[in-house]
């Protein structure tokens, strides 16, 4: 037993200085301080929050910037601790509205990881994207529950707040550019897409088209590796996205936006996103992996068909304007009994070849979609509505592309059964959606869904009953799909119907509308804020041998 009074021998404590481990990754400032870096891009948040200047990230080998991998953005939201990246209460409200409402509606009927995951996660690391998201959420809330163009209560204040947030986003972009702070190409283009959506949402077509052209030019410079296409953005501080990100995320979305802009503004030219998109026929799979996959293939198909149609029309006008190329005398003038101008045989052969080619590949697309639906019989109601929407787009595309090849409106009369199918499917889709959500609630999305087909049904279908059914859907279903606004389309369609049927009495069929009375829209310049649109049009069959008699009218609603 130890003696409790005996002194205890103590061991001296040697205090050793433990050196902090060498930090191998992170920004240069954190490496010098030997602290863990959060590796946020383009600057470390740990530095900026403590007031230090972040020296950025050291380049590897020859690349100043490393491309951001797609998977960094596309990990499911549930895998990371989600928190609102804003401290201001109003900003938090707008961001939450985008998170809960806008991201779910902006893609239309189809689900979209782009809006539900990628954009939301990118907003946590890039201040420009964050403020653009807040601006879009606030703009969406300004009109929520009201007809397009009508502000709800407190909407004007939120609209002004959206403008402030948009200016903040632009300010961050300008500050990063002037300071030459490295940025990923992904974040640059994502910001551009958000600005396109914000401007189309607010009805600013000119600004939206300007942002779209900028985005397309940037994308084109990344896709073409030759001396003719110089980089739009300096590679010294803007990295090029990975090929995977370009092909899976950016090209499909910009292709759909490019097609949308060309359909609403016929005088606009399509952008050639890849070297062979205008000449090489799209490869159609035997089955689609998803409804979004089917939508992307349909957009590629429409893009290619528009190029084909333009090629046929350019050839037509070249042959007509160049008598030496015809090696024949000019055809006889048109008459009331025969209003369709005779075209050179070589042009007709080319048109028939394109028509056959279009029909074959459109049939392949439909077969692939039907096979997908046959193999996936357990689709939920939302997916079923998306499938119906794709059938509407398919039928409308088939009508417009085939009929427009011949460059005269009498060709549309033989597609009345297809017009009726579009209208019937649209009626079902709108009724189904009304049962699922608040009745008469306007919808906003950046994608084309049912508005273009319904507009063509009311303007290109001359059957009085069918076109009025389509017009009624435009008038009773307030919505905005990118550049397409239902109220503007309804007002334009109503004007065309009145113009074409004036003085005819009770027209009962398409044949009652003479060729000389038919209206063809050549271009339109909308101002949705002022609720007006200037349209340029011509009447009668477009004769390539004669100069068009272009008229202009202001339509208001």
UniProtKB/TrEMBL annotation:
Transmembrane segments: none
Limits of the Zn(2)-C6 fungal-type domain: 26-54
Listed InterPro entries: Fun_TF, Transcr_Regulatory_Proteins, Zn2-C6_fun-type_DNA-bd_sf, Zn2Cys6_DnaBD
A GO MF label: DNA-binding transcription factor activity, RNA polymerase II-specific
A Pfam family the protein falls into: Zn_clus
Keyword Cell division among record annotations: no
Keywords (A to Z) from UniProt: DNA-binding, Metal-binding, Nucleus, Transcription, Transcription regulation, Zinc
CDD domains: GAL4 (cd00067)
Record SMART domains: GAL4
Keyword Nucleus: yes
Domain of life: Eukaryota
Protein name: Zn(2)-C6 fungal-type domain-containing protein
């Amino acid at each position: 037993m130890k003696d409790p009074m005996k002194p205890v021998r103590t061991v001296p404590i040697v205090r050793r200085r433990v050196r902090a481990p060498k930090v191998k990754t992170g920004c240069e400032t954190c490496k010098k301080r030997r602290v863990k870096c959060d590796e946020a891009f383009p600057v470390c948040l740990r530095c900026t929050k403590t007031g230090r200047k972040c020296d950025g990230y050291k380049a590897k080998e020859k690349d100043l910037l490393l491309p951001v991998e797609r998977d960094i953005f596309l990990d499911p939201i549930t895998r990371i601790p989600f928190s609102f990246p804003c401290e201001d209460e109003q900003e938090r409200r707008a961001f939450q509205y985008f998170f809960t409402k806008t991201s779910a509606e902006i893609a239309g009927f189809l689900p979209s990881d782009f809006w539900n995951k990628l954009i939301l996660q990118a907003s946590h690391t890039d201040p420009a994207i964050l403020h653009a998201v807040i601006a879009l959420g606030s703009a969406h809330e300004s009109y929520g529950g009201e007809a397009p163009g009508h502000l709800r209560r407190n909407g004007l204040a939120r609209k002004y707040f959206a403008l402030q947030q948009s200016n903040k986003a632009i300010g961050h972009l300008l500050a990063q550019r002037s300071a030459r702070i490295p940025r990923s190409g992904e974040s640059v283009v994502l910001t551009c897409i958000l600005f396109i959506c914000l401007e189309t949402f607010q009805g600013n077509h000119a600004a939206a088209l300007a942002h779209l052209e900028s985005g397309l030019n940037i994308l084109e410079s990344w896709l073409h590796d030759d001396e003719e296409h110089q980089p739009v953005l300096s590679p010294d501080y803007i990295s090029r996205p990975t090929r995977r990100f370009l092909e899976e995320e950016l090209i499909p979305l910009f292709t759909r936006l490019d097609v949308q802009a060309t359909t609403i503004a016929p005088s606009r030219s399509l952008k050639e996103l890849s070297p062979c998109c205008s000449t090489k026929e799209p490869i159609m799979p035997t089955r689609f992996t998803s409804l979004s996959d089917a939508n992307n293939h349909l957009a590629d198909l429409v893009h290619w068909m528009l190029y084909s149609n333009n090629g046929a029309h350019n050839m037509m006008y070249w042959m007509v304007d160049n008598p030496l190329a015809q090696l024949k005398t000019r055809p006889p003038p048109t008459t009331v009994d025969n209003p369709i101008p005779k075209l050179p045989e070589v042009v007709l052969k080319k048109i028939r070849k394109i028509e056959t080619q279009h029909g074959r590949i459109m049939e392949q697309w439909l077969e692939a979609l039907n096979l997908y639906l046959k193999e996936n019989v357990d689709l939920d109601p939302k997916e079923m509505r998306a499938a119906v929407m794709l059938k509407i787009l398919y039928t409308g595309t088939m009508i417009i592309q085939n009929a427009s090849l011949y460059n005269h409106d009498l060709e549309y009369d033989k597609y009345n059964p297809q017009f009726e199918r579009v209208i019937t499917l649209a009626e079902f889709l709108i009724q189904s959606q009304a049962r699922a959500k608040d009745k008469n609630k306007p919808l906003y999305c950046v994608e084309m869904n049912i508005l273009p087909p319904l507009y063509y049904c009311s303007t290109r279908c001359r059957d009085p009953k069918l076109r009025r059914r389509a017009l009624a859907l435009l008038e009773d279903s307030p919505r905005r799909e990118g550049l397409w606004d239902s109220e503007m389309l309804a007002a334009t369609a109503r004007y065309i119907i009145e113009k074409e049927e004036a003085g005819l009495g009770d027209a009962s069929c398409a044949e009652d509308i003479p060729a000389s009375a038919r209206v063809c829209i050549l271009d339109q310049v909308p101002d949705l804020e002022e609720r007006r649109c200037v349209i340029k049009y011509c009447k009668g069959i477009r004769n390539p041998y004669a100069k068009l008699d272009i008229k202009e009218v202001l339509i208001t609603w």
